[in-house]
Amino acid sequence: MLEKEKFNGKVLIFPLLEIELLKTDINLKEAEVLVFTSIYALEKITLELKSFEKPVFAVGQRCEELLKETGVSNTFIFSNVRQLLVGLKDHYRNKKPLIFYLRGNEISYDLKAELSKHNFHCEEHVVYKQKRSFQKEELDKILSRKNLKGIALFSEKSVDSLLKSSASQNLDKTFFCFSKKIENRLKSVLDSDVRCKTTQEPLISDMVNMIVKEYS
User: Fold this and answer.
1) Residue 176 above 90 pLDDT?
2) How far apart are CA 18 and CA 122, in angstroms?
């Protein structure tokens, strides 16, 4: 997307986490509602969703686009997990459906616990796991480049993985954060004065526009 916007620079993609899809046996027919807060969980069961007509609640632009591609039309899309929780409560004020929440092995927000507080019946299914897939020396070699000006981060787990595996002297950059939670996490574990540029909404297009504007 940066290339399409004629970005005045070069972009290096360096995955800080590897996603491993897990073998699962989930009967989606038992669910009355499906919930996704991650594109990876959604990708895991894309084929099964082609005939799914019940409501699907999801977070983020990427989930929305994949659901449309899959042909799922009964969808409710939100910018973050807390908005999704409010949406579920509003939509099911007089009913407590069986919710299947498909997620990764690590989460930063306990959605099931919050749903339980409101008497929702929620089953969690872990369908993928995250693991580090790189060497510290390889990462530091990239971060030490003199012409490297900015780092874009799309998850809190990426923040933790980055800081655990890189030398602090190589982190004097501008950080582009996909959400306020990522910015807060970065400042709490690195430096409260770290230079951050953060999107108002967690949208890929907003992230791209913000980076392009910074280096225009």
Assistant:
1) yes
2) 27
